[in-house]
From TrEMBL, chain A:
Substrate binds at residues 44, 68-72, 126, 191-192. The gene is pyrD. It is found in: Cytoplasm. This is Dihydroorotate dehydrogenase. The keyword NAD applies. InterPro entries: Aldolase_TIM (IPR013785), DHO_dehydrogenase (IPR050074), DHOD_1B (IPR033888), Dihydroorotate_DH_1 (IPR024920), Dihydroorotate_DH_1_2 (IPR012135), Dihydroorotate_DH_cat (IPR005720), Dihydroorotate_DH_CS (IPR001295), Dihydroorotate_DH_I (IPR049622). The active site is at residue 129. One of its GO terms (molecular function) is dihydroorotate dehydrogenase (NAD+) activity. The keyword Flavoprotein applies.
UniProtKB/TrEMBL annotation, chain B:
GO terms for molecular function: 2 iron, 2 sulfur cluster binding; flavin adenine dinucleotide binding; metal ion binding; oxidoreductase activity. This is Dihydroorotate dehydrogenase electron transfer subunit. Its cofactor is [2Fe-2S] cluster; FAD. Residues 1-101 form the FAD-binding FR-type domain. It comes from Carboxydothermus pertinax. [2Fe-2S] cluster binds at residues 219, 224, 227, 243. Pfam families: DHODB_Fe-S_bind (PF10418), FAD_binding_6 (PF00970), NAD_binding_1 (PF00175). The lineage of its organism: Bacteria, Bacillati, Bacillota, Clostridia, Thermoanaerobacterales. Binds 1 [2Fe-2S] cluster per subunit. Binds 1 FAD per subunit. FAD binds at residues 52-55, 76-77. InterPro entries: Cbr1-like_FAD-bd_dom, Cyt_c3_hydrogenase_gsu, Dihydroorotate_DH_ele_sf, Dihydroorotate_DH_Fe-S-bd, FAD-bd_FR_type, FNR_nucleotide-bd, OxRdtase_FAD/NAD-bd, PyrK_electron_transfer. Keywords: 2Fe-2S, Electron transport, FAD, Flavoprotein, Iron, Iron-sulfur, Metal-binding, Transport.
Length: 306, 256
């Protein structure tokens, strides 16, 4: 009985990790539980230069999730390297650095820098943030730009590269295949859906940035389908994310084709959810008499059971 | 910071739109709760996804009881108003940075439900041996928490925009009657309109002025960066997290 999974050359003790942007740098959660219980630690997106982020209001509740326009607010690589990395490297042995850039050069710069640090075990390329004007989702919806970024990072980065794709495209499998062909070791599917909410009383957009990214259980069926479709299209591992708020939701992703899962919005409302999910997966695997959780990966493609 | 289960001991609507919630908590956590800090309460109801932030309005160490005053403004607070004594409620607490208490004379300026954290602050200031003057402004009687007024009758002046309650007018009108330089520090909590209205009057005040801010908030403990507020410092405009860097800020730094 094992929850161990492989993402490229990375071996994770279990398939559960936080989604970037919903877990801070991990420090915010260390009072709630021992982060070593997770498969990996994925930190908030880091850019080359500090970013203030978008004008407030930045979040708004939906009936089954939320919409946000944080705008990749972060202190920038230098501050991260000097002040944050030394604090978080002890939190988990598998640290995945999520990076974003306004140009191919910025991605390459960050990959080069990250390579110098043994404690950073993999990169997750954020080519899919819907809330920034330069880079962000623009790269994830432009096939050529996506190929250029992944290829350029691949040339210089020797550890696993995970590409986090946006769902805001007509056919995500094209972008999944392009990422694989350009050298990605894994995919994270999916980032948030673009959306908008209006303050009816004041007759204006509710978010300061007008648009935001929709997350939470509301987007789960769409995310599951995208994982299902991409599982058929690529042979690299998929990390499924989008509205996981229960064991069954995590299993849905795995059965659709995910090797591992990320939890996003649920961390914000239930900071102890991630370690409980690991425990529930352990029990499930034990009770199901599975050798390894990965036996379930993509099972619905094989007609399921019973 | 912990995720705890509290037990609702009492819930009472004290006006048409405000209810008081008393929750029993573990004794150990109570020592860490200061005026200005808050809790994120989980509302178990259909269509309510995020927790809701509420400032502590009172705390009784002996009985293990914390008090919140909740104004019903949307589906979350409406659903919370339906909770019954005996029910458990999941709470993240204590969160945020509270007020800086200093000796001497303090002027407290509250607008609407902003009186809740200032009630707790006033109690602690008096326990510390300090003196308070309290300005409490409401739009109408539905916003007026009589039980807070009855506790601070001697120190409190009430301003109401509709006739029939206290002095007619706003907190700003009340502030104009005060000799503000007679105070050592000033604390505020209230709606943005009130904060904007009183800012010019307080601009030359040399002492500490602190304000407790509200914001849309997803997590409450610094993970999402959703509750950013604009402040100004020597470098220009910066963003701070209401949940973690605040909710109490230096009033002079806040961009209104």
């Amino acid at each position: 009985m094992s929850l161990m999974v492989n993402i490229g050359e990375l071996t994770l003790k279990n398939p559960v990790m936080p989604a970037s942007g919903t877990f801070g740098f991990g420090l915010e959660f260390k009072d709630f539980f021992d982060l070593k219980k997770l498969g990996a630690l994925v930190v908030k997106t880091i850019t080359k230069n500090p970013r203030l982020g978008n004008v407030p209001p930045r979040v708004f509740e939906l009936s089954s999730g939320l919409i946000n326009s944080i705008g990749l607010a972060n202190p920038g690589w230098e501050y991260f390297r000097e002040k944050i990395l030394p604090q978080i490297k002890a939190l988990h042995e598998v640290l995945i650095l999520n990076i974003a850039g306004e140009s191919v050069e910025e991605f390459v710069f960050l990959a080069n820098e990250a390579q110098k640090f043994e404690e950073i075990k993999a990169l997750e390329l954020n080519v899919s943030c819907p809330n920034v004007k330069k880079g962000g989702m623009a790269f994830g919806t432009d096939l050529e730009a996506l190929k250029q970024i992944v290829s350029a990072v691949r040339k210089i980065y020797r550890k696993p590269i995970i590409v986090k794709l946006t769902p805001n495209v007509t056919d995500i499998t094209i972008f999944a295949k392009a990422s694989e062909n350009a050298g990605a070791d894994a995919l994270t599917l999916i980032n948030t859906f673009t959306g908008m909410v209006i303050d009816v009383k004041n007759k204006k957009p509710l978010l300061g940035n007008f648009y935001g990214g929709v997350s939470g259980p509301a987007i789960r069926p769409m995310a599951i389908k995208m994982v299902y479709d991409c599982f058929k299209a690529v042979s690299i591992p998929i990390i499924g994310v989008g509205g996981i708020d229960s064991l069954d939701a995590a299993l849905e992703f795995i059965m659709a084709g995910a090797t591992a899962v990320q939890v996003g919005s649920q961390n914000l409302v239930d900071p102890g959810f991630l370690p409980r999910l690991v425990e529930q997966l352990e029990l499930y695997v034990k009770d199901s008499a599975l050798g390894n959780i990965s036996e379930l990966t993509g099972i619905v493609h094989r007609g399921g059971e019973g | 910071m912990q995720d705890l289960k509290g037990v609702v001991v009492d819930k009472q609507f004290i006006t048409e739109e405000i209810f008081k919630l008393k929750v029993y908590l573990s004794e150990k956590i109570l020592a860490f709760i200061d005026p200005g800090s808050f809790a994120m309460l989980k509302v178990e109801a259909k269509g309510v996804y995020l927790r809701r932030p509420f400032s502590f309005a009172d705390l009784d160490i002996k009985t293990g009881m914390v008090t919140f005053y909740v104004k019903v403004v949307g589906r979350g607070t409406k659903a919370l108003g339906e909770i019954n004594p005996g029910q458990e409620i999941s709470m993240l607490l204590p969160l945020g940075r509270g007020f800086t208490r200093r000796p001497g004379k303090s002027l407290l300026i509250a607008g609407g439900i902003g009186v809740a954290p200032l009630n707790f602050l006033a109690k602690r200031i008096i326990e510390d041996g300090g003196k308070v003057s309290f300005l409490y402004g409401v739009r109408n009687a539905r916003q007026f928490i009589a039980e807070i007024y009855s506790k601070f009758k001697k120190e409190m002046e009430v301003y109401c925009e509709e006739p029939g309650l206290g002095n007619r007018g706003s907190v700003r009108d009340g502030l104009l009657t005060k000799e503000i330089m007679a105070y050592d520090q000033i604390y505020l909590c209230g709606p943005m309109g009130m904060l904007k209205a009183v800012k010019p009057i307080l601009k030359d005040f040399p002492g500490l002025i602190e304000v407790s801010l509200e914001s849309y908030m997803a997590c409450g403990f610094g993970a999402c960066l959703g509750c950013a507020v604009q402040l100004k410092n020597k470098d220009g405009i910066i963003y701070k997290k209401v949940c973690q860097d605040g909710p109490v800020f230096n009033f002079k730094d806040v961009v209104l």
